[in-house]
Amino acid sequence: MNQSQKKKTAAKLDVEAILAVMLLALIVIAVVLAVIMTVSALTGDQSDDPNAGKNPPPSNAIFNNGIVPQMPAANATTQNANINSKYGIIVDIDTGLILAGKNADTQFEPASMTKVMSLIVACEKLTEEDLGKYITYSEYYKNYDYQGLAQGIPSSSFETLNDRFLVKDLLYGIGVMSAGDCMLMIAEYTYGSMDAFVAAMNQKVAALGLTQTHFIDASGNDHVPGNITTAKEMAVIMAYAMQSPLISDILSTDWYSFYAYYTEDGVEKSYRRAFKSTLFEYDACIDRSNRMLRYKEAYGEAFTLLTTDDFMGKTGYLDTPARSYLASAATGKTSGHRFVVIVGDTDKFAFTMKDVKDLLDTYAS
């Protein structure tokens, strides 16, 4: 074989070797892609929600170990609730039994009881580090009320632009005062937008196995209709929320004092603020929206419970026409069982409180 033939043979072998390597590489890539697609199909989010799986809760969230409560069930001992409210239920969480109910499977607008779910979604996203971060009160948040986005729900009544508030304090604004601007600030801090936050709320609805509940707004604003639930499913939401020590504390607080921070002439300063409960009576001032105060005015006595302690709750109100709601919970003094009471659609705050008291005093122990 001459020199020219040897070169041609070597070149042919080189080309064949390169082609073999390329073919092997393509086979390896195809196998890897097949494995990735298989794993994705087996473990990926199967939800139809385009937002599902986005922004998953961090492993160190302040509330990420909640146990899904069983759906409340009636039995032969379940009573028809004799209450003013159009809808109502009392559930023994520890047994899962409905003790009494009235239209408990009928859908209605939950108003600001919606914020119980909002607190769940926020706390399952936030970490302890987040609670100490600041959110600046901007013109955008200030205009939230005046643009009609929060019309019909309380504002925190922040006044000064560029003041800074701790994330933790804003959570109390949501649960204690039912503040719409606090809700917007937390929604955008946790998920980037209100739409993404509401999508996370509906993902949680699905995770809790609720089929009659849907949210389009995180505050329960009746000028943005579309939020819907039932007394039974709202009871599941409340039972789930009670597992969070922070949410339980928020919903048990009558008067929350905190600091607002600002900078003046380059100097960091602060001043004290407070959120006033829409539920609990307090001595600091008289607020006509306070439910327990209205109960005292109507019935001539303070709101007290005979058979339960550790009362907590989240109010709701729709103003077209006027309708009052309350998602509440308490612990039996004798049994130690936890009870959830949902009542709604009365035209007086006092009636709402009386319904809760009658249900707990009658059926809880």
CATH superfamily: DD-peptidase/beta-lactamase superfamily
- Average predicted local confidence, pLDDT: 85
Radius of gyration: 28 Å
SSE order:
HEEEHHEHEHHHHHEEHEEEH
Task: Determine and state the CATH class.
Answer: Alpha Beta
* First and last CA, distance: 105 Å
- Poorly predicted regions are 5-11, 35-53
DSSP strand content = 15-25%
Q: In which order are the strands of the major sheet placed? A: 1-3-2-10-9-8
Oligomer: single chain
The strand count comes to 10
Number of helical runs? 11
Number of domains: 1
- In one word, what is the shape? globular
Verbal overview:
By secondary structure, the chain is of the alpha+beta class. The chain has a single domain (79-363), classed as Beta-lactamase (3-Layer(aba) Sandwich). It is built from eleven helices and ten strands. It has helices at residues 3-43, 114-123, 128-131, 139-146, 167-177, 180-191, 194-207, 231-241, 245-250, 291-299, 349-363, and strands at residues 79-80, 87-92, 97-102, 134-136, 164-166, 255-264, 267-276, 308-319, 322-332, 338-346. A six-stranded mixed sheet has the order 1-3-2-10-9-8, with helices on both faces. Helix 2 packs across helix 7 (194-207) and helix 4 (139-146) packs across helix 6 (180-191).
Keywords:
365 residues, alpha+beta, Beta-lactamase, six-stranded mixed β-sheet, two-stranded antiparallel sheet, 11 helices, 20% strand, globular
